[in-house]
From TrEMBL:
The chain crosses the membrane at residues 192-211, 223-245, 251-269. Residues 25-150 form the Ribophorin II third domain. InterPro entries: Ribophorin_II_3rd, Ribophorin_II_C, Swp1. Pathway: Protein modification; protein glycosylation. Subunit of the oligosaccharyl transferase (OST) complex that catalyzes the initial transfer of a defined glycan (Glc(3)Man(9)GlcNAc(2) in eukaryotes) from the lipid carrier dolichol-pyrophosphate to an asparagine residue within an Asn-X-Ser/Thr consensus motif in nascent polypeptide chains, the first step in protein N-glycosylation. N-glycosylation occurs cotranslationally and the complex associates with the Sec61 complex at the channel-forming translocon complex that mediates protein translocation across the endoplasmic reticulum (ER). All subunits are required for a maximal enzyme activity. Belongs to the SWP1 family. It comes from Caenorhabditis nigoni. This is Dolichyl-diphosphooligosaccharide--protein glycosyltransferase subunit 2. One of its GO terms (cellular component) is oligosaccharyltransferase complex. Residues 178-274 form the Ribophorin II C-terminal domain. The lineage of its organism: Eukaryota, Metazoa, Ecdysozoa, Nematoda, Chromadorea. GO terms for biological process: protein N-linked glycosylation. Keywords: Endoplasmic reticulum, Membrane, Signal, Transmembrane, Transmembrane helix.
Length: 280
């Protein structure tokens, strides 16, 4: 079944590819940007002939080409699948542009050369212009060079990637804008907060002064003064943290003082416990 369908499709294409086509009403010209095409500024070229004089245009002008593709038998318009204008440079490089039909089946190419230059890959100068027409239903595809053109096209700008750019001038100075510091509380609030924080220490010293400090139960151990000196050093370190040190400096010194104070305090407690056992 598939073989029959394939053979039927091939036979349909073979029957359809029996049309002879031609090009008529072929007109070409160089127009100004806002100029309307008419008989004065367009030249008619017969099929498979060449425009006697070449075309000359700059980037601000328009290339205008119009034509119809018709059947030879009844002069009816057709719309082939492939209709192109081909520009060939002396170096052999070519540029192919698509020509689309309008609603009435007329083929018109009308473009400012500065706009079309994007498709020419930095090519400029002399070009041979050919019309290419082809379709599976056309028996005689057309490849017709109808004119030469000297086009002064602008060179397309291709920016250099940033990674490949070389800059010799000094770069702009980078300035950072830091966030403005938050508004600090008034001096009255700060002083009141300081007094509240220091109040427990004041109360401690007042109570010590009234009750007294009992050194009688302190064991005869060299770790007793080390413990008290370490404890006093920790309090002093907290004060320095408030007025001078940052957190990292404070932690660095606290790790040493804290270790010594912990070891000394442990030995003091052990000595007190041993003293109570002996007294009992």
């Amino acid at each position: 079944m598939r073989l029959l369908l394939a053979l039927g499709a091939i036979w349909a294409v073979a029957l359809a590819a029996s049309e002879d086509v031609t090009v008529n009403n072929f007109k070409v010209g160089i127009l100004a940007k806002d100029q309307q095409p008419d008989a004065e500024n367009l030249k008619t070229v017969a099929i498979f002939s060449k425009l006697p004089s070449g075309l000359t245009a700059d980037a601000s002008q328009r290339l205008y080409v119009s034509f119809n593709v018709v059947k030879k038998a009844d002069n009816a318009k057709v719309k082939p699948q492939q209709v192109f204008l081909r520009f060939v440079a002396p170096s052999g490089e070519d540029v192919v542009l698509v020509v689309n039909p309008d609603a009435n089946g007329n083929y018109i190419y009308d473009s400012v050369l500065r706009t079309a230059a994007k498709s020419f890959r930095n090519l400029s100068g002399q070009f041979k212009i050919s019309l290419l027409v082809g379709d599976v239903t056309i028996k005689n595809p057309i490849n017709w060079q109808f004119a030469d053109i000297d086009a002064a096209l602008p060179t397309a700008y291709e920016p250099t990637p940033k990674s490949q750019q070389v800059r010799y001038e000094p770069m702009e100075e980078i300035t950072h804008v830091f966030r403005q510091p938050e508004k600090r509380p008034s001096a009255l609030i700060s002083d009141a907060f300081t007094i509240i924080v220091l109040a427990p220490f004041v109360i401690l010293f007042v109570l010590w002064a009234r009750i007294g400090i009992n050194f009688q139960n302190a064991p005869a151990s060299p770790f007793v003064p080390i413990f008290h000196i370490g404890l006093a050093g920790i309090f002093g370190l907290y004060i320095l943290f408030w007025i001078q040190f940052d957190m990292f400096e404070t932690l660095k010194y606290l790790s040493v003082l804290g270790f010594l104070t912990f070891v000394a305090g442990n030995r003091v407690l052990r000595a007190i416990a041993e003293g109570k056992q002996k007294s009992e």
